[in-house]
Amino acid sequence: ASYTFGLVGLGVMGRNFILNVADNGFSALGYDLDEEKARSLREEGGNPDKVDATSDLGTFVAGLSLPRKIMLLVPAGNIVDRVIEDLLPLLDEGDIIVDGGNSFFRDTDRRETYLKEKGINFFGAGVSGGAEGARRGPSIMPGGNREAYAHLKPIFEAASAKYKGEPCVAYLGPKSSGNYVKMVHNGIEYGLMQLTAEIYELLKTAGRLDNPAISDAFHRWDQDRLESFLVSISATILKQKDDLGSGYLVDKILDKAKQKGTGKWTSQNSMDLGIPMPTIDMAVSMRQLSALKDHRETLDERFGDLEVPEWTPEDLLPKAEAALYFAFIMTYAQGLHLLTEASEDYEYNLNMETIAKIWRAGCIIRAELLADIAQAYGANPELPNLVLAPELTDAIGSCLPAIREVVAYGAKYGISIPCLSSALSYFDAFSSGRLPLNLVQAQRDYFGSHTYERTDQEGIFHTEWPKG
Ligand code: 6PG
Prior knowledge:
Elements: E1 5-8, H1 12-23, E2 28-31, H2 35-45, E3 51-54, H3 57-62, E4 69-72, H4 78-87, E5 96-99, H5 105-117, E6 121-128, H6 130-136, E7 139-143, H7 146-159, E8 162-163, E9 166-167, H8 177-205, H9 211-221, H10 229-239, H11 262-273, H12 278-290, H13 293-303, H14 313-345, H15 352-358, H16 369-379, H17 390-413, H18 418-430, H19 437-448
Helix pairs in contact: 1-6, 1-7, 8-11, 8-12, 8-14, 9-10, 11-12, 12-18, 14-17, 14-18, 15-16
Bound molecules: 6-phosphogluconic acid.
Residues 102, 128-130, 186, 189, 258-260, 262-263, 363-364 line the site of 6-phosphogluconic acid.
Domain 6-phosphogluconate dehydrogenase C-terminal: 178-466
Binding site for substrate: 102, 128-130, 185-186, 190, 260, 287, 444, 450
Organism: Robiginitalea myxolifaciens
């Protein structure tokens, strides 16, 4: 037994991650049912002392030093349970299994409890950054047994992305906290992606900008406060010519967005925990709405398009930038708010500063803004919601006129920018000391005797309302 780290599942992510671990000085052994995948890793690895692979599970487990550290990078769902069952009879007490996939957090809790009884430490660790991240340094979000994490720490810290030298991995909390944080990361990811797409639409429709011009704008923004992976790749995507025909590839891509479920889970769970996150909800809804293309086309013909007057790019571009920055802040605020609540409800004991820090590099939602967010939580670890952070008041306030204009333009001329507008509505509602929900309470009391509280007296009240 000589390898320090074991990896099950030599698909693109697994293969890239094990090579990354090996490059960072930890000998690693890979396992895949498919001998072809094992062989190809052996070839690419070059040096079997550093990295080797097998398609025999017994050889794999026997080849790992104790306590075994075995990471699974297999598709979420039943496969994880099956791999665990296959491994179990071969493991020793104290061994560690890490699920690196996008598993549903309740599955992780179930697996952790089950494996604890058998003396095995189970971790759910979100890994973000796609194939490139896995190879060059992802952001890793591990949750599980704190003591057992000591065995994983040096490996994960070496393999993770670095932000100004700081590793983008940290022990996050017990049980499914790592998977949960990754789930919310993905909810934020959905929001930022949809927002970027809406700005692209606005620049195209109102600004009459072509793909290279939008790409240039995104590229410039990415040099400044909007520096982020998603803005940066959007700049690159918009420049890509179509190999199969003329023009730009982005114009040929069907406008139906698929999803694997993590964004939807985030929205679903936010409803359970009572945390408002309309921008993320809307981003999930937009993927669902995008699938209804036939109906969209029917209604497009029926209602037609409005004439959109040109908004001069000189005037539009800075406003679009500010609107996007504002909406990015609101999206992080919503996701982090959910994490704050989940930390209490699920006893994860999360540290929000740490989470913001490990998102600064490697992951899909990495952005310069996260450094400011980390600072805000560093200054006040009990911050209930990012919008309340004094550090962000100026940034939010200075973007308000721009986002109002952008949203008004979209509403007036029928440009679909629902995430931008929900980010603004979220802020407007959140910053309203008085909302019209007094009428909602009165209606509830009217038809259901649900009672209400008063602004001027303590107690619970009910009125026998006159019948309309
Ligand atoms: C990441 C991503 C990744 C996710 C894809 C696909 O952090 O690297 O979040 O884990 O699987 O983005 O997600 P959808 O198919 O749901 O868009």
